[in-house]
Amino acid sequence: MSVQVIDGRACARALKQSLEADVAGLRGEGLGIGLATVVVGEEYGSAAYERRLRRLADELGVAYSPQVLPADAGQDQVMARISELNADPGVSGILVLRPLPPHIDETAVFRAIEPRKDIEAVHPENAGLLALGVPRFVPSTAASCFRLLDTWLDSVGEDRADFYHRSLIVVVGRSNNVGKPAILLGYERQATVVSVDEWADRTTGIGRHTRWADVLIVAAGKAGLIKAEHVSENAVVIDVGINPAAGADGRVHMVGDVDHASVAPRVRAITPVPGGVGPVTDVWLLRNTVTAARLLAGHPTDEARPSLPTARPAPTFQEAS
Ligand code: NAD
After folding, report:
1. Inter-helix orientation angle 140-155/179-188, to 10°
2. Which residues have any ligand 1 atom within 6 Å of their CB?
3. pLDDT tens digits for 60-90?
4. Which of 82, 89, 99, 123 is the least crowded, having the fewest Cβ atoms under 10 Å away?
């Protein structure tokens, strides 16, 4: 069986198209939509990320305001910048890029974001709503993983509900911004979900869990962590990782957490890096910004609607007599 490479760029294009109509409608009503990102210090990829978001925001007609503070900015400075953005009527969505320098209290910064502008659901109120299955915002990276899965299932003609109900989803990595939301979205789809973290790797090894996965979502930030011996032949692999690697030409390029060359020939489907999770994440962030603009204007949003079609009735099994 030849592997199917799940095309994140095509998925992102389709999502962007539906967003364009949405943005045009809101602008027609005179509603301003603006995204602000906050970076403290220089982090690998943050400049490239800002360039991508600026291009996307421009294409969609959304105002974009990247806020860069020096690495030695104090807690007060960061909190003051968040307050300004909260009060700015031109800003509908605020994204604070992680990691923040160690001297900054990240939780306090997240708590300071106006919840209706908190497009990555890092404020406790929004994280709680997500955990309860009634999200105000679905964090963009986890949303992207499931958007790719849903789109792929549609493309191969598999019933989404049926697939998730019988599937084991293994999520490698348990960060608040990627791993945990992905776990919650797996629960929301009524799948069986297993969370694997660094300690499993250090003790028993992760393969004893990942080898059973029907869906393997990898968000550890470790280049080439997942190799052929960690996956089953039926697995659908979603590679979230973005890691800098030196190419043969000496230039830095981007690789995932999955050793694509050895894993791809073995599995059912896989996302590439680049061109997989990333492009959909970017568009989803803009989608959340539009949702925030709606919320701030008192319009209804559609986040809390169930994401699954009605499930087929569960199969009944006869007890052996
Ligand atoms: P993080 O560092 O906050 O969290 C990583 C998680 O993986 C932690 O729970 C850690 O304990 C776990 N982990 C680390 N080593 C492990 C190992 N050997 N085995 C099992 N678990 C291990 O990182 P994050 O913000 O969750 O991001 C993860 C990766 O995803 C990074 O490479 C990041 O750049 C990338 N990322 C990509 C996108 C995208 O849109 N494609 C978005 C966000 C993050």
Report:
1. 40
2. 141, 172-175, 177-179, 196-198, 201, 206, 219-222, 225, 240-243, 277-278, 281
3. 999 999 999 999 999 999 999 999 999 999 9
4. 89
